[in-house]
Amino acid sequence: MRDQPAQARWVIWLSLLVALALTIWPLPDTVAPFRPEWSALVLIYWIMALPHRVNVGTAWITGLLLDVLTGSLLGQHALALAIMSLVVAGSHLRIRVFPVWQQAMTVMALLGLYELMLILVDGVTGNLYDLEWRWAPVLAGMLLWPWIMFLLRALRRQFGVS
Questions:
Q1: Integer Cα distance of 39 and 59 in angstroms
Q2: Are the beta carbons of 128 and 122 closer than 8 angstroms?
Q3: Which of the 8 DSSP states describes residue 27?
Q4: What is d(CA 162, CA 145) in angstroms, rounded to the nearest whole number?
Q5: Do the Cβ atoms of 149 and 100 come closer than 8 Å?
Q6: Which residues lie closer than 8 Å to 153 by C-beta, 6 or more apart?
Q7: Model pTM?
Q8: pLDDT < 50 stretches in the chain
Q9: pLDDT the model gives residue 23
Q10: What pLDDT does 30 receive?
Q11: What is the pLDDT of residues 42-76, one digit of tens each?
Q12: Do 43 and 54 contact (CB within 8 A), yes or no?
């Protein structure tokens, strides 16, 4: 007996693959510093919505794929996403009942934690660069959160992902 439709898995993984593709999508130089952390935003949604399906292991795999795609230190994004996912999984019941604007502020804090972990790893490895622009994706992610949340919720309901 199956407890989950087969389509549920592909919707989650397809949304994560789209997030990875958006991460490497070329942008003009003027907009590139404001590129949101797509993978982190999608993971935050899925962990809040389905913590029994999407968890720290999913975040770790997504982070390793992100490391390979961006050519960064192997494990850097995996570590940052795993730590962020632990925080989301531990408080997903509280975050889900927040109004959208409060969720956006919480997502900003979560993305700030993610970015801080990346900065710490970069600092240890001696790769510090443009610290003032490192916080632009956090702001962009906070502003995009309501649309991402509503889009992924509509997909989850349309395909019966549970």
A1: 9
A2: yes
A3: -
A4: 21
A5: yes
A6: 45, 49
A7: 0.93
A8: 1
A9: 96
A10: 92
A11: 999 999 999 999 999 999 999 999 999 999 999 99
A12: yes
Burial 59-74 (b: 16+ CB within 10 A, else e): bbebbbbbbeeeebbe
What is the residue type of 133? W
Can you list the pairs that 78-81 forms with residues at least 24 positions away whose Cβ atoms lie under 8 Å? 79/117, 79/121, 80/114, 80/115, 80/117, 80/118, 80/121, 81/39, 81/40, 81/43, 81/114
Structure tokens at 108: 């900003």
CB 108 within 8 A of CB 142: yes
Token representation of residue 74? 């192997």
- What integer pLDDT is reported at residue 1 of this predicted model? 38
Sign of the torsion angle spanned by Cα atoms 51, 53, 54, 60? positive
Nearest by Cα to 35 from 115, 138, 151, 149: 138
User: Are the C-beta atoms of 72 and 98 separated by less than 8 Å?
Assistant: no
- Kind plus residue range of the DSSP H or E element containing 149: helix 136-159
- Residue 1 burial by Cβ neighbours in a 10 Å radius (0-12, 13-18, 19+): exposed
Q: Which residues lie closer than 8 Å to 5 by C-beta, 6 or more apart?
A: 160, 161, 162
Kindly report the CA angle at 14 between 8 and 17, in degrees rounded to 5?
Answer: 145
